[in-house]
Design a protein that fits this description.
Length: 236
């Protein structure tokens, strides 16, 4: 009888132990079992594909018109990774990309934060980008001489480089005198250069022409009558 009793107790303990081992790993809480915490699986990182050459140009050209040169430059740097070493005697698409990148770099003073051949985090790198812009626009002008639009682009880029501003004044002034300058940005730079030389009347005229052409008024220097007038103080 004792042996049977002990055997029964052993079977009961074994059954209880088996039940414990078979139960799911959970913590008892107020008569309920808290489900085991499972960390969510990280979502796979989706890398945005770089734009094709066609897509890069379709982004860059409207971006320049909307006064977003940094966006234009970033798209072109992604779509044309070898653009910095491209020659002028190349495809029509690359020629358009060269001109757009040269303008975008000029309008950002050579600054570009996109990783790649045009990345510029230092003053020296920004200066190199500006010089590339000027050199590229010179080559485009040589390949297509007597094109007022390209001449205006070159004059605009020259105006952003302190050592080239006298040449910029000559190029842009000649276009303005013939009334063949088709760029608000070029007129804006001419207005600033004339103001620096003390030519207030010439600067005013260039600023007025800029304002009639610009899609974004902030591109142009303020005219003297646009500046806030000083309020006379009592007793003065």
């Amino acid at each position: 009888m004792k042996l049977a009793k002990f055997a029964g107790v052993g079977v009961l303990l074994g059954t209880f132990a088996a039940a414990l081992s078979a139960s799911p790993p959970a913590a008892a809480c107020g008569g309920f079992y808290e489900a085991e915490y499972r960390a969510p699986k990280p979502k796979p990182v989706q890398v945005k594909p770089k734009p094709t050459t066609e897509e890069a140009i379709s982004i860059a050209e409207p971006a320049l018109q909307k006064e977003q040169p940094a966006l234009a430059a970033a798209a072109l740097a992604d779509g044309f990774p070898k653009l910095r070493t491209s020659g002028i005697d190349t495809t029509r698409q690359e020629t358009k990309a060269l001109r757009a990148m040269a303008l975008a770099l000029a309008r950002t003073d050579g600054s570009l934060s996109t990783p790649g051949p045009f990345f510029a985090a230092t003053a020296a790198a920004k200066s190199q980008n500006l010089q590339w812009s000027i050199a590229t626009l010179r080559k485009l002008n040589d390949a297509r001489p007597n094109d007022p639009a390209l001449q205006a682009d070159l004059g605009e880029a020259l105006a952003h480089s302190p050592g080239s501003q006298d040449e910029a004044l000559r190029v842009l002034g000649a276009l303005a005198d013939k009334d063949i300058m088709g760029s608000a940005h070029a007129y804006a730079q001419l207005a600033r250069l004339r103001a620096q030389k003390g030519d207030a009347a010439g600067s005013h005229e260039a600023a007025k022409r800029c304002q009639t052409m610009a899609t974004v008024p902030a591109v142009c220097p303020a005219l003297p009558e646009d500046a806030p007038k000083a309020t006379a103080q009592p007793g003065v």
